[in-house]
Amino acid sequence: MDKLTVENEIFLPQVVQLIREGHHVTIMARGNSMRPFIEDSRDKLVFGMPDQLAVGDVILAEVTKGHFVCHRIERLAGGVVTMRGDGNVVGTEVFPVENVRAKLVQVVRKGKTYMLATSRIWKCYSAVWPKLFPVRRYLLALYRLIWMGQWPERWKRK
Question: Which domain holds residue 55?
Answer without folding.
Answer: 8-133
